[in-house]
Design brief:
Order of helices and strands: EHEHEEHEEEHHHHH
Largest sheet: 5 strands, parallel
CATH topology of the largest domain: Rossmann fold
CATH superfamily of the largest domain: NAD(P)-binding Rossmann-like Domain
Strand order of the largest sheet: 3-2-1-4-5
Number of domains: 3
Structural class: alpha/beta
Radius of gyration: 22 Å
Strand content: 5-15%
CATH class of the largest domain: Alpha Beta
Distance between the termini: 55 Å
Shape: elongated
Number of helices: 8
Number of strands: 7
Helix content: 40-55%
């Protein structure tokens, strides 16, 4: 039976996260957590050259040994990439006891959370999960969405944030502001950005009485 998960985005900035296992999988998990600005403790007798470099630079704390009970003290989250069933169970039990989010890679019965397949385009994050039923299907869906939501969406969202601030500063009724935001949201702005058609883009924006932020387009 597939587990039921609650979809959530966590703010891990400044929060202690423990990664157990210093191989390639552990390295990927560390890099993802660094992007989230987490404080990272790596527990592993060995580590990839890239992880060693991160430790030397002070970007992560590296405990050069195997897992020991107590390693999750003060942690918010743990990810373990180890093949030892006894260690996996011990980590999961400690995480449960201390109410720490736990993910034992490829062992769903020892996971209180799973990591979805993700697309990032600047401020846009799309997470896809099959609740562990088929990671391959999640990857296929992600690949399709990557084509639908191209790199232009990073610029698009920066632009929309700017336009939203302009609209909120206008002396208009809430309904009028909402209507402007709606018209911009349904306009083919991503297509114009992708095609480099800044003239049409400028027309749409100025038609709403807004200033075209040319600095987003290098002009």
């Amino acid at each position: 039976m597939t587990n039921v998960y609650f979809p959530i985005f966590l703010n891990l900035e400044g929060k202690l996260c423990v990664v157990i296992g210093g191989g390639k999988v552990g390295e990927r998990k560390v890099r993802s957590l660094l992007e989230a600005k987490a404080l990272i403790k790596l527990v592993s007798p060995e580590a990839t050259p890239a992880l060693q470099k991160l430790a030397e630079e002070g970007q992560i704390i590296w405990e050069r040994r195997g897992y020991q009970p107590g390693d999750l003290e003060g942690a918010w989250l743990v990810v373990a990439a180890t093949n030892d069933p006894l260690v996996q169970k011990s980590i999961y039990q400690e995480a449960n006891d201390k109410r720490v989010f736990c993910n034992i890679v490829d062992v769903p019965e020892f996971c209180s959370f799973i990591v979805p397949s993700v697309i990032k385009r600047g401020s846009l994050t799309i997470a896809i999960s099959t609740s562990g039923a088929s990671p391959a299907v999640a990857r296929r869906i992600r690949e399709g969405l990557e084509l639908q939501f191209g790199l232009e969406y990073e610029v698009y969202l920066k632009l929309m944030e700017n336009l939203r601030k302009q609209i909120l500063g206008l002396n208009l009724s809430p309904k009028e502001k909402e209507e402007k935001l709606h018209r911009l949201a349904i306009a083919p702005i991503p297509q114009y950005i992708r095609d480099g058609d800044l003239n049409l883009l400028k027309v749409i924006i100025e038609k709403e009485g807004l200033i075209f932020p040319s600095e987003f387009f290098g002009s």
